Every structure is written in C-alpha cells, then in structure tokens.
Amino acid sequence: MIRTDDYIRQIFLKPLGAQVEARGWVKTRRDSKGIHFIQLNDGSSFQDLQVVIESGAVPEAALAAATTGACVCVSGELIASPGSGQSVELKARGLEVYGPADPATYPLQKKGHTMEFLREIAHLRVRSNTFGAVFRVRNALCFAIHKFFQERGFVYVNTPLITGSDAEGAGAMFRVTTLDLTKPANDAADFFGRPTFLAVSGQLEAEIFALAFTNVYTFGPTFRAENSNTPRHLAEFWMIEPEMAFCDLDGNRQLAEEFLKYIIAWVLDHCRADLEFFNKRIDNTVLATLEHVASSAFEHVTYTEAVRVLEKSGRNWEFPVHWGADLQSEHERFLTEEVFKKPVIVTDYPAEIKAFYMRLNEDGKTVRAMDVLAPRIGEIIGGSQREERHDVLLEKIRAKGLHETDYKWYLDLRKYGSAPHAGFGLGLERMMMYLTGMKNIRDVIPFPRTPGSAEF
Ligand code: ATP
Ligand code: MN
Questions:
Q1: Mean predicted lDDT score pLDDT of the chain
Q2: What is the DSSP string of 373-433?
Q3: Residues with CB under 6 A from ligand 1
Q4: What pLDDT was estimated at residue 88?
Q5: How far is Cα 195 from Cα 197, in angstroms, rounded to an integer?
Q6: At what angle do helices 272-281 and 129-151 cross, to 10 degrees?
Q7: Helical H runs in 84-222?
Q8: Which residues does residue 196 pair with via DSSP β-bridges, in sequence order?
Q9: DSSP β-bridge partners for residue 369
Q10: Do residues 383 and 169 touch, judged by C-beta distance below 8 A?
C-alpha cells in the first residue's frame, strides 16, 4: 500500500497524543543514560522528527541496529517536547529496522563534509540537510514554473533531444551515433542516416509550436559539450523556453520579469524552512535578496548604455570592454551587484555577437536580444524577439556563413503565416543557484555531468 498521508511533515501537524507511525532514515543518534534520541527524516520536511526511546521500550536488537543511516519505522505517541529545537517529539513504543547501515563504513557521518566529498557520494548526499533542502526547492521550483505558464494558457511542448541540426550555435554539441568508432566515419551508415546531436536548445522547434498555439513553453534537458569547467556550466542541464507569438521585446522582457518574480515568491512561500537553512549556512544574503527581487522593478539598460557604464567605471577588467565585445561574467556581475544592485535586463546587443535568428533593429547594427543578469550569477536568462521577416532572416543566415538548406523549415515559418514572436531561455540550475545561494552548479542538480565526470 502506498502511503501519502503520514509523511513526517504531516505528523508534525497532528495533535498531541496522536498515535503515529513514522518511517525514514536516521540522520543522527544520541544515547544517554536510559534514553536514546534519534533524528528521523523522510525527505518531506527540513525539520527532523525527534524520536525518544526509553530503554526497554523497544527490542534491544532493533535499538542496536537503528544507527545513523539506517532506515526504520517507529510507532508511538506524539508528545510535547521538553527539549529546545522542536515542539513535539515521538515517544517510541515500537521500532522496526528495515535496513541497517554499518556505522563503521556509512560515509555520511554527522557534519563537516565538503561539497566535493558529497559529490562523490551523490547516492547518499540526498539524505543530508543541505541536499534535502536543495532538492525540495528544486521540486517546488519546477512545479511553480509549470503553474506560471499553465495559468497563462501556455501550451507545454516537448522538443526533441536528438536533433539533426547543429544549427543554433548556442554551444558545442555532443554527437549521437551508433557507428563503430574504430572504423572510418560513414555518416550515411549511421543510425539516422545522417549526423545527429544532442540538442543545445528547443527554441527553434518551440517557434514551430508558437506559430500554431500562440504561447508555448518547453521544459526539458539540454546538452552542451562546452569544455568550460566553471561553477556555472554543466554539460547536461535543464532549460525552460517560453515562445510567444504576437510578442515583441518589451513583452518578452515583461514576461521574464513577471516569471522570475512569480517563481521566487512561490519558493519563498512554500520552502521557508529550506531557504532559512540556506540563509544561515550557505549565504546570509539569500533571503533578503529574494524578498527584494520579488518586490522591486528590474533595471533595464541597452547594451550600448551598459558598455558606457563599464567603460566609465575605471575598473581594470580582465576582459577589456568596448562596443562590440560580449559582456563577460565580471562585467555582468559588476552591473548587477555594484551598479544597480538588482536584476538587470540588457537589451539590443550588437548583431555580430548574437545568434542569427534575433530580430535586426532599424540601426542595422544591433538586434532585439535581451539577457537577464542576476547578482552573484550573471546571466540567468537569454532571449530575443525573433526575426520574422523572411528576406532579412535569409540574409542573416548567409552573412553568418550558415547553410540555408539546413534552415529550410525555419525559413518556411517566415514564408507561411509568419508573425512577430519572441521568447527566452532560463537555465533551471542557474535559477537554483540564485534561490539557494549554492556556489557550484554541480550541487543543485541530482547527478552533475561536467568535463571528465559522469558518475552515477
Ligand atoms: P553563458 O554565457 O553563461 O555560457 P549562454 O549565452 O551560452 O550562457 P544561452 O545559450 O542563452 O546561454 O542559454 C540560455 C540559458 O541557459 C542561460 O541564460 C543560462 O541560464 C543557461 N545555461 C547556458 N549554458 C549553460 C550551461 N552550460 N550549464 C547550465 N546552464 C546553462
Ligand atoms: Mn554558454
């Protein structure tokens, strides 16, 4: 029988005197004369359930086996807790051990493990305070994302993970093949009869759907073989990509701001205990920042204005700033953390440094691009109004040295019932870093894939 009504989170809400059964994993255990304390957690709440076992109340063998890491079921009565740190506790009458955990070898001991060590035990780190909080927040965030779009009538669309177009230029791609790699390559003999790759984005396909369903979004994994070993890049990460017909850059910007505020407010409302933990242990600015962002207007500057601010800053940049150069992380962080002290939306970048599909401005030099930059993280959203004019798009494809045959269907969209449209991509893990204050993107995804590492 599947049980969904007696999570520890729900047990906390029961009245004193209630007879309950609690199941979970022993986080810590403490013994003193004649009395034993177990902190029990089943993942449903940040707060552990304190179990009190008086000597003789439960079988000796079960008590001996209920050590840190063991999986147990405790039955007993909910009583007021005299100790500090919790208002109720479970006074045990019965104890059953489903699975013991050898204390001599169980790697997740009390505390003080480094994040690096915990990554090596990704199968067990989920039982720790930190990762319990991370993955509860991640779950709430994903729910809020769907809720936001569904409430606004956006249609959820699943774009392919295996793609034939190495088109978008968003990043280096992983090849998908069944070819014998010890033999000379023969694309025609490959599984799909052509070279295929893991998708770097679902945007181009989402555009197909926006031009039939008006407002759509994707939410799925994307892959980039970029060999950038940074704390902000994964080889496999999740992206949310709304795409809206009849929408321009201003509408895109408004949606991005409304969206970020909504999901932040949702997590503030639904994951309070987890966020308080992050605020106490990981980054003591998290709560204040989120509350501030949820309630204040984002800043908007054009790329040209941003470059002027950076040039005038008098800073010694590692990457020199000049009109035409892409903004680097150091510039993005300076703008959000020191100049504006809140999220900043930068728009109208030089065409040269942005993708071919972004709509060309009247000046012929800049495109209707927007990046949303967040303090601590830098770029969190990248988006644009798309080029909906067939001939302008074709010209751009040629000018960028791309093959127009590869974009036949994409150009068709501009030939048959084209419409102004816009969209953006939010990296789920970047958002997670923002919400939790976690410093390394490897620690906000269950099983990180990075250069040289694909454990689990
Ligand atoms: P960056 O300059 O940070 O590498 P990008 O310009 O390559 O980002 P886009 O192609 O615009 O990013 O992708 C949209 C969003 O996906 C980004 O704003 C970011 O939130 C996220 N993102 C991009 N690359 C990665 C990655 N390798 N790992 C995790 N998230 C990523
Ligand atoms: Mn990138």
A1: 95
A2: EETTTEEEEEEEEB---HHHHHHHHHHTT--GGGGHHHHHHHHSS---EEEEEEEHHHHHH
A3: 170-171, 224, 226, 233-234, 237, 239, 379-382, 425-427, 429-430, 441
A4: 95
A5: 7
A6: 130
A7: 115-120, 129-151, 203-213
A8: 176
A9: 384
A10: no
